[in-house]
């Protein structure tokens, strides 16, 4: 009986120390990387605030409501963290899968600029941008969201990608003097 209580207290200290540190670091990383929060602020709230609070309460529910031994309740808490991690992986994979296919609607949604880099491969497979006119590009991708400029006789249409904390890129489409696309590239923004 005494060993169960000591084991429960030790596991409880380990669980809550680990959990609070893990959830804090995960939240900070999620804010900086901005994957789920870029997709939906409600989903971000559920994944990084509500789920962690529920997981921290699970051992207490098992202990007091279901009358389990505390060390068993803590083990259920650790299992719930593993399930939580799997749920985050599934959500991230689902978001990636959704944006892997290019559509004009996804591209022009300014809330999802940070996911454009995922759509580039599919965009280039479905459409040959070289040879398109400026109006055709605007019809396909919408108006540019970065200031366009003329460099050495070329006009640049530029679309922001990955507006995250750590990096930023732009998808540039170069037009000649006749407003025909000559090339595309992705540049790193400083």
Task: Supply the key terms.
Beta-lactamase Inhibitory Protein, Chain:B, domain 1; alpha+beta; 190 residues; 7 helices; 2 domains; 15% strand
Number of alpha- plus pi-helical segments: 7
State the distance separating the first and last CA atoms: 62 Å
| Overall mean pLDDT | 88
Order of helices and strands: HHHHHHHEEEE
Q: How many strand segments?
A: 4
Strand content: 15-25%
Helix content: 55-70%
| Apparent shape | rod-shaped
Radius of gyration: 24 Å
Strand order of the largest sheet: 1-2-3-4
The largest sheet is: 4 strands, antiparallel
The residue ranges in which pLDDT falls below 50 over 5 or more consecutive positions are none
Structural class: alpha+beta
Total individual domains: 2
Task: Please explain how this structure is put together.
The chain has 190 residues and is of the alpha+beta class. It folds into 2 domains: 2-100; 114-188, Beta-lactamase Inhibitory Protein, Chain:B, domain 1 (2-Layer Sandwich), CATH 3.30.1450. It contains 7 helices and 4 strands. The termini are far apart. The model has no long low-confidence stretch (mean pLDDT 88).
């Amino acid at each position: 009986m005494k060993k169960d209580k000591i084991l429960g207290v030790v596991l409880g200290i380990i669980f809550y120390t680990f959990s609070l540190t893990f959830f804090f670091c995960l939240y900070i990383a999620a804010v900086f990387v901005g994957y789920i929060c870029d997709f939906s602020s409600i989903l971000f709230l559920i994944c990084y605030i509500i789920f962690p609070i529920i997981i921290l309460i699970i051992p207490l529910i098992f202990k007091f409501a279901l009358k389990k031994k505390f060390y068993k309740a803590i083990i259920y808490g650790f299992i719930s963290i593993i399930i939580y991690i799997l749920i985050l992986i599934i959500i991230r994979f689902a978001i990636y899968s959704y944006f892997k296919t290019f559509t004009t609607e996804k591209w022009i949604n300014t809330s999802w600029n940070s996911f454009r880099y995922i759509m580039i491969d599919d965009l280039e497979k479905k459409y040959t941008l070289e040879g398109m006119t400026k109006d055709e590009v605007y019809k396909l991708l919408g108006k540019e969201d970065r200031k366009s400029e003329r460099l050495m006789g070329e006009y640049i249409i530029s679309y922001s990608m990955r507006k995250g904390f750590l990096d930023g890129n732009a998808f540039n489409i170069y037009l000649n003097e006749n407003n025909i696309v000559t090339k595309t590239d992705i540049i790193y923004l400083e």
